[in-house]
Amino acid sequence: MRTRLWPLALMLAAAAPPAETLARTNPMGGGTIRVVYEAPKKAVYREIYDTMRQRRVLERVGTIIGFVRLPTRLTYRLKECAGELNAWYAPEDRSVTICYELIDSIVRVAPRTKSPAGVTRRDAIAGPVFQILLHESGHALFDLLHVPILGREEDAADQVASLILLHLSPADARMVVDGGAYFFATTAKEEPVDKGAFADVHGLSWQRFYNLTCMAYGSDRRRYRGIVAKGFLPKERAEGCEEEYDQVAFAFQKLIGPHLRMRFRSGAQLRRAFRSVPRS
Predict the structure, then answer these.
(1) Has this prediction a pTM greater than 0.90?
(2) How far apart are CA 208 and CA 188, in angstroms?
(3) Is 146 left (phi over 0), alpha (psi -120 to 50) or beta?
(4) Is residue 246 within 8 Å of 271, Cβ to Cβ?
(5) Rounded-to-integer distance, Cα 280 and Cα 278, Å
(6) Rounded to an integer, what distance in angstroms lies between the CA atom of residue 30 and that of residue 25?
(7) Could you tell me the residue ranges of all domains in the chain?
(8) What is the Cα gyration radius of the chain?
């Protein structure tokens, strides 16, 4: 039985074009953003292909990054990866790729309806997908804008993704926080913790879980107070989360802010762009 990515508003089997790839240029990005949906060879991934296109997931992420003046075109691609559960930014061709296999793995660990912590199936799927795409977009911005990085680049990419997503509407931000946290907590259960794990350039899943929840709490203590009240974030860490959030926001303003096409008016323009991607 196939697992659904999220409920489809309409079936796209008849509407989908026969072309193997579908490319669009994002007007908001001034022609600097391109998206490509490679049709999967495996039938099991067909629903992911249809849903990602219908929900215009790559376009929505591309529209966000389109607020940045990029020196060259950036491509977002969905493709099969020969069984590899992965997503990455490739500087050689300036592209962000997310694999069907990775999305399928997210679908498989999502709760049937709702997790014991209250995370819905939809959030447990959509949240990590957007978090991963914006994490890789962070790598792209660092490369294309020559942004200096102190510390591990993977941590910095997580911080950029969290900062951007927390400026979306409250509902969209909650989706990513809940879904991303669920994904990190779930993958942590199967993550080997040995000396080799500490040598990886990525943080351990529990570290990424606490970093994400701390950023959320630091951005709005009232809205995310349940994270601390329910024990998902230790009080000792929570005390400094507002400073952690401010530090990331300050660095973003200094290093990436000068490249923005316009100022975010309390995130209003960003929210509208994410919600209403123009159709080409």
Answers:
(1) no
(2) 10
(3) left
(4) no
(5) 6
(6) 8
(7) 23-275
(8) 18
